[in-house]
Amino acid sequence: MRTRLKVCCISSRDEAHLAIGAGADALGLVARMPSGPGPIADELIRDIARIAPPPIATFLLTSEIEPDGVVAHARRTGVSTVQLVDDGVEPDVWHAVRSDLPSLRIVQVIHVRDESSIDLALRAAPHVDALLLDSGNPAAQVRELGGTGRVHDWSLSRRIVERSPVPVFLAGGLNPANVADAIHAVRPFGIDLCSGVRRNGRLDADKLHALVGAIHRADASLR
């Protein structure tokens, strides 16, 4: 078992190539959001998705919450995976994606705030391909749907991992200095981060390689 790496907030072809060269398993492509870093135009998302080689997954981070809107957004961008960043979506969204785009993977974000997040995650898990645990707050006056740079309560995330029937990614305030602790505490299928491997807003090769090394060492210590 190795911890997968999703590098989010990819903003250009060059960043995509840098992330893939460092060993990323997935690229996160952020569409229009009410807040947070990294949004790019749908046309650029489609361009990056097109040049990503298999088996690299391309995740569309969409804030759409209506079934038709999610399906149209995924079709427009040509990604392999849709990441639903609002954890208040209704089941008809999952069902619409399954029906209209059966080859598209679905990842549901759960913003871990308290015990209720466990129930929310377990409600979604049977309908999606993976969960992603983050530190936003969709109920805030300006919805926070990711990219906060905050660490949440990893003990709650560990309980979700232990009970989830699908793989779980961990996000929220991760960086080369704390990623090993996160892996030991939560045992996620994969980790996901944006600002933790950036310098002055740009994907940083040194930080990225330091992160990958920390992941490899953490994985080796658990074998």
Shape: globular
Structural class: alpha/beta
Instruction: Please report which band the strand proportion falls in: under 5%, 5-15%, 15-25%, 25-35%, 35-45% or over 45%.
Output: 15-25%
pLDDT averaged residue by residue: 93
Helix content: 25-40%
CATH architecture: Alpha-Beta Barrel
Radius of gyration: 16 Å
3D architecture notes:
It is a single chain. The protein is α/β, with parallel strands linked by helices and 223 residues long. It has one domain (4-222): Alpha-Beta Barrel (TIM Barrel). It has helices at 13-22, 42-51, 67-77, 91-100, 116-124, 154-163, 179-186, 205-222, and strands at 4-7, 26-30, 57-62, 81-84, 105-111, 130-134, 168-170, 190-193, 198-199, 202-203. Strands 1-2-3-4-5-6-7-8 form an eight-stranded parallel β-barrel, surrounded by seven helices. A two-stranded antiparallel ribbon has the order 9-10. Helix 3 crosses helix 4 (91-100) and helix 7 (179-186) packs parallel to helix 8. The longest helix has 18 residues, at 205-222. It is globular. It starts with a strand and ends with a helix. The mean pLDDT is 93.
Short structural summary:
Helices cover about 40% and strands about 20% of the residues.
Secondary structure layout:
Layout: E1 4-7, H1 13-22, E2 26-30, H2 42-51, E3 57-62, H3 67-77, E4 81-84, H4 91-100, E5 105-111, H5 116-124, E6 130-134, H6 154-163, E7 168-170, H7 179-186, E8 190-193, E9 198-199, E10 202-203, H8 205-222
